[in-house]
Write a structure and sequence with these properties.
Helices cover 59% and strands 0% of the residues. The chain is mainly α.
């Protein structure tokens, strides 16, 4: 039994040798062994040796069969390749599938396009591209586009809503700084198009709701934009639109017809409107408000026929007025108040001056009038007026203190013209303090009377009044 197992193990080992590579030297050795084994078969072999010999012969036969089959398959593949190559034409692209040379059969095998082609390549190194004239034979050639092309920034024309949003902040800022050049620069940056006449009408409408100084600034702006942003006909079209809109404007501003007439008169005097602007409406106006505005403009132009500009049609507003003019206006205001006693009219006139930084001058002039007046009526009326101005906030604490302090500083000089200035001043200051017009500190700062003189020794030391 053991001998049988050994024989089978030897047979399996012999079969494993079949897998090993086979070379020409091994083939010669096998042939020699075959001859030797055939000679020894007739000898005295044991059964185990004989079985081993037969296994070796079978393994060798398998190796021969495998070797011959592989050679035949290789030969067949080579023959099929030769047949396929013989059937492909020389110019066919299939034969040069992986060939990077030119397929046109020309050239020296150099790269295509001189090395200027390929992914991420913008051309051959060192090549500078210049303008090329369009070719009329090009399928994409367009004769209409073959002219000189000019590139420019195009600003779209504003519609009515966009125009109002753009113009409103420009006008409001102009009322603050008063620089017409800045407004003209901003308007040139906008494409007003056929709506150029909308800007003057919007500016005038905003000024009607504002102060007299705003209307003065608007008149100056209308005069400066002529010839730079629009012409006289555009402005005439704007005023024509405002004349038609007067029934709506009068709801917010009852004095709109008179104010619009003043705008028209000022524009004609400034040569911003044509001289025959008023003549265009003779006998053609049905609206009573428009007729009132045109009548107002005609009246102002007839009164100022010899004057080229109606500069004072709105008055001179705010800090643009000369100081002497403001002082004269305040003196007239106080004198009218002393004669009429109308506090509301005095308050209205002071607000129209639009000089809150100069209200200390009103306090100063009021105190001087009290010192120069005769009787106690002026004292009580001025105290009442200053109290109203103080309570309404029209005159601030700083302006009140500055006005009284100026009188305190000049009281020695005033005393030369008004001998009883100190006595009247003390009485007026006490009355103002009792009416809560001035502070206790300001009352205590009032200078005392001048040199004290006694009548005589027998008068008991009384101070001469």
């Amino acid at each position: 039994m053991a001998t049988v197992v050994d024989a089978w193990s030897e047979v399996s080992a012999a079969e494993q040798e079949v897998v090993a590579p086979y070379s020409g030297s091994e083939q010669d050795e096998e042939l020699a062994e075959d001859e030797l084994n055939d000679a020894e078969v007739n000898g005295n072999w044991t059964p185990q040796e004989k079985a081993l010999h037969e296994a070796r012969i079978k393994a060798k036969a398998k190796r021969r069969l495998r070797r011959t089959s592989s050679k035949d398959s290789t030969r067949e593949s080579l023959s099929s390749t030769e047949v396929s190559d013989s059937t492909v034409e020389p110019t066919s692209p299939k034969g040069k599938l992986n060939d990077r040379k030119s397929r046109m059969g020309k050239g020296r095998g150099l790269p295509k396009k001189g090395g200027a082609g390929g992914k991420g390549v913008w051309g051959a190194p060192g090549v500078v591209y210049t303008y090329e004239e369009p070719d009329a034979r090009d399928p994409n050639y367009d004769e209409a586009c073959a002219v000189d092309t000019v590139f420019a920034t195009v600003v779209p024309e504003l519609d009515e809503v966009q125009l109002q949003k753009a113009v409103h902040p420009i006008v409001q800022e102009y009322f603050e700084h008063g620089d017409t050049h800045e407004v003209i620069a901003l308007l040139k940056g906008l494409n007003l198009g056929h709506k150029r006449h909308e800007f003057p009408s919007l500016a005038v409408s905003l000024s009607l709701e504002g102060k007299a100084s705003h209307r003065e600034l608007t008149s100056r702006l209308l005069s400066d934009i002529i010839g730079k942003v629009m012409n006289t006909e555009d402005l005439a079209r704007a005023f024509d639109k405002m004349l038609k809109d007067l029934p709506d404007l009068i709801l917010d501003t009852p004095e709109a017809p008179q104010m619009l007439g003043q705008f028209i008169a000022r524009a004609v005097a400034d040569h911003a409107l044509p001289l025959d602007f008023l003549d265009r409406y003779k006998g053609k106006v049905d609206c009573d408000h428009a007729r009132a505005a045109l009548s107002r403009a005609a009246l102002l132009l007839s009164m100022k026929r010899d004057i080229n500009r109606l500069d004072n049609v709105w008055g001179v507003g705010g800090g643009q007025r000369p100081v002497r003019h403001l002082i004269r206006e305040m003196n007239l205001l106080l004198k009218e108040y002393l004669s009429s006693g109308d506090i509301s009219e005095a308050e209205h006139c002071l607000r129209e001056l639009e000089v809150p930084h100069f209200h200390h001058e009103l306090v100063y002039e009021a105190v001087i009038m009290v010192l120069e007046a005769t009787g106690s009526t002026a004292v009580s009326m001025m105290v009442k007026l200053l109290k109203v101005f103080w309570e309404t906030g029209l005159i601030t604490l700083d302006q009140m203190n500055r006005g009284f302090q100026r009188v305190y500083d000049e009281l020695p000089d005033i005393n030369l013209d008004v001998p009883n200035a100190h006595v009247i001043m003390e009485t007026f200051v006490d009355s103002c303090f009792q009416a809560a017009v001035i502070t206790k500190q300001l009352r205590d700062a009032c200078p005392c009377r001048g040199r004290k003189r006694f009548v005589s020794e027998g008068d008991g030391g009384r101070i001469k009044q």
